[in-house]
């Protein structure tokens, strides 16, 4: 009898031990979870939420404590005069474009474009039935004889020394004459409040970074990214293109560089590939050169599935 | 034993729960893919360029704000910490190396090994990557042969011996990188030398051209860059219309005929209009003559 | 026919509004208030409340603006050109014409401000104005033309105000105001000399300014590359159209006023007949310009022009185009070739058709061109390919039209519609006055 009793105590002891161990394990696992959940909640509860645009272009709510205000790099030059001894040009290789539209989404993202009309659009072009269809990325041509600048009544749009045409959104009165004058249809209008989120709206405005922020009742367009040039970087569309369609550079240096970092001599490129400009006969003298879509790298049809006839800015949930 | 069998399942499940929580928190850390390059810019600085990426939700992304600790290997397996560096928004970091130090003058070339490590990072798993190289020097010069200019470059090792069989690129420094001159590569001969003739006169600010020679990611010597500024280019002329009076200039640079004729017309109309307004005043002030 | 001077003054003095006048004014004010409410919405929310978008970037506000500028030219036509060519029969119509001109040019200025995306920055036009821009030219000429028109309205009023002060039917306070505004006019030779010289100078000056105002407005379109606007014909084309619209407006207004104020002795059937003939002439001139504007590009049919013309002749805008041309020009010409058609009532109906046709013609000039840009319309919502004004846009547009009518109504209430002094001079009644008063 006593032996059985002893066995029972041992069993009870192990029993209790296991029970305590179980409870302890569960408690520690649960405790960790609880600490995690309530720990982070405690932080959030203390602060307001702030609305930002995430890296993929969606508007999200983020605790204000996580947000640090990044001061915009103030350019060390006059944004109305531009860089000295430079003349910026772009080359678009139509033989390589397959309508990936990465240029468009990168531009939309980096300029906080929230309207219905993108600043760079990839047109589905075909001059006539018997000639080849092709994709044509079209952006502001930064003309040397800009019809838009000629007609602006208040000097809100201007041409710089380095060839770039910019808009001063603090000056624009919204008469839209520049939009009527532009034959390339590259200018867009902010018909209502752009609602770009706090990052754009809290940044100090400078014409050399267009769209940060945009303003209701004024005109916007591609700016050739002077804010990137200032940092020694290529415009967003150039670096974003996966097919090296775009090359950008200084005409005086006779060099243009594509998104992969390859530089070529501009004059040779235009001669060898028979470069041309859009609507040359109008006399606008654009700064964007196109290389014809011959000896195509990819077929035109490969871009058709990506073609959105009625959309150029992806819709996200607006506030 | 009966107890163990009875409690085996619950015990195992608890163990699994604990383990899974631990591994789950460990799995949340990303694996960073690090690439290193040793870059020496002649007469300037030497540094290790770190580039870190990771596979995120939508493909590869740059690992920004990722801290690395840099070590130098001294005397086999012994590491000396040199400092720390953090990647920028583009996932790149640059750690400048000081006093690489030449080994004592022997025939064997000293191999320097550096190690970069991710340690105790919240977001990324611990990782190490090392890079080894020997020191070398690259000099660049301009020669004139039969009235054509030529760029010459000489590659020598740490003790001054010429290095043969390495491939150098030659080009012009431009706003975005290097514009290649001549062939893709030039192989150094037994004197460690290359010669590239400049067939075309290129444009440059004030006629100055910066020619660069580049040894790109050699297994032995890393990356070495050298450059020279020579005044043999065509001077760049500012062709912009910014200083001229044009139809697309700001008001301060209105074309003269536009300042002259419209203002003449405006004055031609408004001066009479003011006079006519004054006439109204005259009418009101004139006294009726007595009839 | 045996009319005395007193009778004449009585007939032509401004009278108080009867119930019809009051209801008319109230109706106009109501329309205007609706428009003000809509504009407040537009000012706050932006031009998104209109039907305009990035391709149809100009809409009824601009076509309405062009319409107002066109109507305003009637002042220079009737008052200046006819006066300078020695025409006597137009004298009773000069004041109506000037009133319409002033009302139209004021509303033109307001309409263009309504179209601005940032009217709060209007001062930029003056602080940072660029003489290279056609809009700045337009601002200059509109301001100048307004000033000239006001002067040309005011000068002939001096003797009339003096008469109304002495013999007018209004309250004492009103007659005091007439007195002040008459600037001590007594008709003596010195004043008369300044008066005649000034009016002559104004009449001469207003003609080039009127030509300038509509040429510059035409250049807002002609300085662009767009097919339908890129025309060397636009300056004279617009001016010819302006005279048509203005003549139609004068006829319409003079009919209404004649009826309302029983002015049959002063605005006779003869006046209608002559205005009718003038309208025919002006319509024919405008038809000539239209033929130039549309026939020759059709002959060539360059790519972009062909698309534009097709949309006008047989496409999206065909109904509007043909109604404006046929109903607003061709049928009026045919109707007015007959003397019966130039009787007051038929002429009034024709004039209304002409004015309505003129309003829609400007719509046809502004909007269809914007539907055919050089590059295809892609990457934007489908609704952006077609323009239709929203009810807010219509409300604001109708409010501007009501505003012009309200200005005309108020001026008609307080100013003699037919110039008293000049009419008296013409009828030889002034000698009698002098005799009776001395």
Write a short abstract of this structure:
The complex is a heterotrimer of chains A (319), B (291) and C (438). Chain B is an alpha+beta fold.
Would you kindly provide a written description of the structure presented here, covering whatever features stand out?
- The complex is a heterotrimer of chains A (319), B (291) and C (438).
- With 319 residues, chain A is of the alpha+beta class.
- Chain A has helices at 2-46, 102-110, 147-151, 177-181, 198-201, 226-229, 236-240, 266-272; strands spanning 49-53, 59-63, 88-93, 121-125, 134-138, 157-159, 165-167, 188-189, 219-220, 246-250, 255-258, 263-265, 288-291.
- Chain A has two domains: 2-66, no CATH class; 88-306, Alpha-Beta Plaits (2-Layer Sandwich).
- In chain A, a hairpin with a 4-residue loop joins strand 11 and strand 12 (263-265).
- Chain A is elongated and about 105 Å long.
- Chain B has helices spanning 2-27, 256-285; strands at 32-41, 45-56, 59-62, 67-74, 78-86, 92-97, 112-118, 127-133, 136-145, 148-157, 167-174, 177-180, 186-187, 193-197, 203-204, 209-218, 222-230, 234-235.
- In chain B, a hairpin with a 3-residue loop joins strand 16 and strand 17 (222-230).
- The radius of gyration of chain B is 36 Å and the shape is flat.
- The termini of chain B are far apart.
- By secondary structure, chain C is mostly helical.
- Chain C has a single domain, classed as Formate dehydrogenase/DMSO reductase domain (Formate dehydrogenase/DMSO reductase fold, Up-down Bundle).
- Chain C has 18 helices and no strands.
- Chain C is globular and about 75 Å long.
- The model of chain C has no long low-confidence stretch (mean pLDDT 92).
- Classes of the chains: A alpha+beta (319), B alpha+beta (291), C mainly alpha (438).
- Chains in contact: A-B, A-C, B-C.
- The A-B interface holds A 11, 14-15, 18, 21-22, 25-26, 28-29, 32, 56, 80-82, 84-87, 144-146, 149-150, 155, 158-163, 232, 234, 248-250, 252-255, 257, 261-265 and B 3, 7, 10-11, 14, 17-18, 21, 58, 171-172, 174-180, 202-205, 236, 238-242, 247-248, 250-251.
**From the structure provided, what is the oligomeric state, counting identical versus distinct chains?**
heterotrimer
> What portion of the residues of chain B fall into strands of 2 or more residues?
35-45%
Q: Note the overall shape of chain A.
A: elongated
Element pattern of chain A in H and E: HEEEHEEHEEHEHEHHEEEHE
Task: Count structural domains of chain A.
Answer: 2
Give the name of the CATH architecture of the largest domain in chain A: 2-Layer Sandwich
Compressed to H and E, one letter per element, the order of chain B equals HEEEEEEEEEEEEEEEEEEH
Distance between the termini of chain A: 79 Å
Overall geometry of chain B: flat
Radius of gyration from the alpha-carbon trace of chain B, in angstroms: 36 Å
Helical content band of chain B: 10-25%
| CATH class annotation of the largest domain in chain A | Alpha Beta
Number of helices of chain B: 2
Number of helices of chain A: 8
The largest chain-to-chain contact, stated as pair and per-chain residue counts, equals: A-C, 48 and 46 residues
CATH architecture of the largest domain in chain B: Sandwich
Q: Kindly provide the name of the CATH class of the largest domain in chain B.
A: Mainly Beta
CATH T-level fold name of the largest domain in chain B = Immunoglobulin-like
Largest sheet of chain B: 9 strands, mixed
Radius of gyration of chain A, in Å, reads: 29 Å
Overall pLDDT score of chain B: 86
């Amino acid at each position: 009898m006593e032996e059985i009793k002893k066995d029972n105590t041992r069993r009870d002891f192990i029993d209790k031990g296991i029970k305590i161990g179980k409870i302890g394990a569960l408690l520690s696992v649960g405790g960790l979870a609880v600490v995690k959940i309530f720990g982070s909640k405690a932080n959030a509860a203390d602060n307001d939420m702030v609305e930002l645009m995430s890296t993929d272009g969606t508007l999200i709510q983020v605790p204000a404590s996580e947000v640090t205000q990044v001061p915009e790099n103030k350019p060390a030059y006059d944004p109305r005069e531009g860089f000295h001894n430079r003349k910026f040009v772009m080359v678009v290789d139509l033989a390589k474009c397959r309508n990936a539209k990465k240029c468009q989404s990168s531009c939309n993202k980096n300029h906080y474009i929230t309207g219905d009309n993108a600043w760079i659009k990839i047109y589905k072009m075909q001059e006539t039935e018997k000639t080849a269809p092709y994709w044509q990325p079209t952006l502001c041509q930064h003309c040397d004889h800009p019809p838009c600048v000629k007609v602006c009544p208040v000097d809100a749009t201007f041409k710089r020394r380095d060839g770039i045409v910019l808009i001063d959104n603090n000056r624009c009165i919204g008469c839209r004459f520049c939009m009527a004058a532009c034959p390339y249809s590259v200018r867009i209008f902010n018909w209502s409040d752009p609602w770009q989120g706090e990052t754009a709206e809290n940044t100090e405005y400078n014409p050399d970074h267009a769209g940060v922020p945009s303003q209701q009742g004024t005109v916007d367009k591609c700016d050739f990214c002077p804010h990137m040039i200032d940092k020694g970087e290529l415009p967003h569309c150039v670096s974003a293109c996966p097919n090296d369609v775009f090359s950008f550079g200084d005409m005086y240096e006779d060099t243009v560089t594509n998104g992969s970092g390859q530089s070529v001599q501009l004059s040779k490129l235009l001669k060898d590939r028979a470069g041309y400009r859009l609507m040359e006969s109008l006399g606008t003298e654009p700064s964007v050169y196109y290389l014809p879509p011959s000896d195509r790298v990819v077929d035109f049809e490969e871009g058709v599935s990506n073609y959105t006839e009625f959309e150029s800015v992806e819709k996200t949930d607006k506030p | 034993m009966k107890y163990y069998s009875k409690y085996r399942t619950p015990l195992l499940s608890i163990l699994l729960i604990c383990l899974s929580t631990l591994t789950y928190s460990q799995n949340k850390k990303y694996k960073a893919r690090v690439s290193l390059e040793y870059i020496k810019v002649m007469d300037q600085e030497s540094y290790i360029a770190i580039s870190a990426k990771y596979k995120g939700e939508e493909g590869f992304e740059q690992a920004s704000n990722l801290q690395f600790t840099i070590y130098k290997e001294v005397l086999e397996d012994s590491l000396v910490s040199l400092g720390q560096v953090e990647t920028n928004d583009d996932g790149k970091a640059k750690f400048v190396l000081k006093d690489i130090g030449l080994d004592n003058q022997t025939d064997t070339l000293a191999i320097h090994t550096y190690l970069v490590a991710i340690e105790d990072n919240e977001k990324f798993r611990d990782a190490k990557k090392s890079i080894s190289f020997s020191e070398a020097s690259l000099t660049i010069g301009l020669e004139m042969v039969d009235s054509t200019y030529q760029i010459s470059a000489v590659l020598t090792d740490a003790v001054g011996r010429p290095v043969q069989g390495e491939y150098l690129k030659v080009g012009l420094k431009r706003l975005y990188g290097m514009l290649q001159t001549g062939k893709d590569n030039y192989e150094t001969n037994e004197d460690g030398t290359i010669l590239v003739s400049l067939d075309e006169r290129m444009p440059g600010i004030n006629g100055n051209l910066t020619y660069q020679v580049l040894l790109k990611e050699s297994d032995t010597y890393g990356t070495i860059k050298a450059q020279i500024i020579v005044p043999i280019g065509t001077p760049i002329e500012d062709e912009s219309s910014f200083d001229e009076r044009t139809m697309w200039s700001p008001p301060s640079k209105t074309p003269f005929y536009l300042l002259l004729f419209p203002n003449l017309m405006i004055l031609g109309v408004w001066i009479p209009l003011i006079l006519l307004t004054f006439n109204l005043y005259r009418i009101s002030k004139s006294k009726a003559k007595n009839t | 026919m045996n009319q005395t001077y007193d009778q004449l003054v009585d007939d032509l003095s401004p009278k108080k509004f009867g119930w019809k006048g009051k209801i008319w004014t109230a109706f106009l004010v109501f329309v205007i208030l609706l428009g003000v409410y809509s504009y407040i919405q537009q000012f706050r929310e932006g031009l998104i409340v209109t039907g305009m978008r990035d391709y149809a970037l100009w809409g009824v506000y601009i076509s309405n603006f062009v319409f107002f500028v066109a109507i305003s030219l009637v002042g220079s036509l009737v008052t200046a050109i006819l006066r300078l060519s020695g025409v006597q029969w137009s004298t009773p119509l000069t004041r109506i014409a000037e009133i319409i001109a002033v009302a139209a040019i004021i509303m033109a200025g307001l309409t263009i401000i309504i179209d601005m995306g940032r009217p709060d920055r209007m001062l930029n036009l003056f602080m940072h104005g660029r003489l290279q821009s056609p809009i700045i030219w337009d601002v200059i000429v509109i301001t100048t033309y307004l000033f000239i028109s006001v002067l040309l309205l005011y000068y002939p009023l001096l003797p009339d105000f003096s008469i109304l002060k002495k013999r007018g039917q209004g309250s004492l306070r009103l007659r005091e105001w007439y007195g002040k505004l008459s600037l001590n006019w007594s008709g003596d030779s010195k004043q008369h000399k300044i008066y005649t010289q000034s009016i002559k100078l104004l009449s001469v000056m207003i003609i080039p300014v009127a030509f300038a105002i509509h040429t510059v407005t035409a250049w807002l379109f002609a300085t662009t590359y767009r097919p339908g606007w890129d025309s060397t014909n636009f300056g004279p084309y617009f001016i010819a159209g302006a005279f048509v619209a203005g003549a139609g407006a004068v006829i319409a207004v003079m009919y209404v006023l004649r009826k309302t104020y029983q002015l049959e002795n002063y605005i006779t059937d003869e006046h209608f007949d002559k205005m009718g003939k003038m309208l025919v002439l002006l319509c024919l001139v405008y038809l000539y310009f239209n033929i130039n504007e549309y026939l020759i590009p059709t002959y060539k049919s360059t790519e972009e022009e062909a698309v534009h013309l097709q949309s006008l002749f047989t496409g999206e805008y065909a109904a509007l185009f043909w109604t404006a041309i046929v109903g607003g020009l061709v049928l009026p010409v045919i109707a007015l070739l007959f003397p019966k058609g130039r009787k007051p009532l038929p002429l009034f109906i024709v004039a209304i058709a002409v004015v309505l046709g003129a309003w829609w013609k400007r719509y046809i000039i502004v909007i269809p061109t914007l539907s055919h840009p050089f590059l295809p319309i892609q990457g934007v919502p489908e609704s952006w390919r077609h323009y239709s004004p929203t009810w807010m846009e219509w409300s604001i547009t109708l409010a501007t039209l009501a505003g012009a009518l309200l200005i005309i109504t108020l001026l008609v209430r307080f100013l003699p519609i037919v110039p008293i002094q000049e009419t008296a001079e013409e009828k030889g009644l002034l000698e009698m006055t002098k005799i009776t008063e001395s």
